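Human: Here is a favour to ask of a fellow structure person. Comparing notes only helps if you start from a blank page. I am asking you to supply a protein in sequence and C-alpha cell form. Write it directly below this note and I will take it from there.

Assistant:
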Amino acid sequence: MKRRDLLAGLTLAGIDLEAQSSPEVNAEGSLYIPKPHLVEDRKFLHDFMDEFSFVDLVTATPASGGLPAIRITHIPALVDRTAGKFGTIRGHISRQNPQSKTFDGRQAAVIVFRGPHSYISPTWYAKTEVVPTWNFAVVHASGKLKPIAEPKAIHDLLAQLIHKFENYQGSAYDFAKLPDSYTYGMIAGIIGFEMEIEGLEGKFKLGQERSEADKQGVLKGLQSARPARSIHDFTDGFYRRPV
C-alpha cells in the first residue's frame, strides 16, 4: 500500500475500527490522544508498524545533577506479533552508542513508528472560516529493553532485517553468502535489543471526526497537494550542496 493511499483511505473510512483490549504502561501513556484520534485495533496497529518500521528509539536515564538524559536513535526494527502478549520489537544499535546502557531489562523505553503526514489547508473544508491543521499517523510502543548480545542471535536478527527490506526492494542481495569472517567482525561492533510491548498507543489524526463533505475535501486537497521530496531528490540535493 502506498503511504498517500493509506492516509487517504483512513481519512475516507473515518478509521471506524473495533477497539481491542489495549495494553498500558501507565494511565497517562506516552502522548496525548483525543478520543476521536485513538485507535486500539491491535492488528491494524501491527500492520502499520510493519509498514512504517524505521523507528525512533527513545530512552531516558539518570544523568549528573539528577536530570534525565534523553537519547533518541533512528533505526529499522522488526515486529514479532507472536512473542509476548502484545508483540515484541527487535533491533540493533552501535556498541559505541551510550543508549546501549539502557538495555538492562529495567529501564523504560518508547519506540515511535511514524507514518504519513501532511499540512491541511482550510480551503479544503466546506466552511473555510477555520484554522489550518496537520494530519498524521503514529504508533508508540512502550516497554523495557533487553540486550541481544550473543553473536549468533545478532546474526539471525540482521538476517531477518535484511531479508525484510531486500524482499521489499526486490533485489538479489543475499546476506547468507557473505563470509562469516566478515559478518561476525561487523557484528562485534553492534548490540541488539528486544522489547516486549507493554503499552501500545495509536494516534491517527486524520480529520475522521469532521463532516463527510470535509473528508472529501481533504482527500481532494491531498491528491493535488505538492508532494514531499523523495529521499532520492533530497539525497541528490545534499550531494550537490556547496561545502
In short: The chain is about 30% helix and 30% strand. Residues 236 and 242 are 12 Å apart (CA to CA). The first helix runs from residue 3 to 13. Residues 11-27 have pLDDT under 50 and may be disordered.
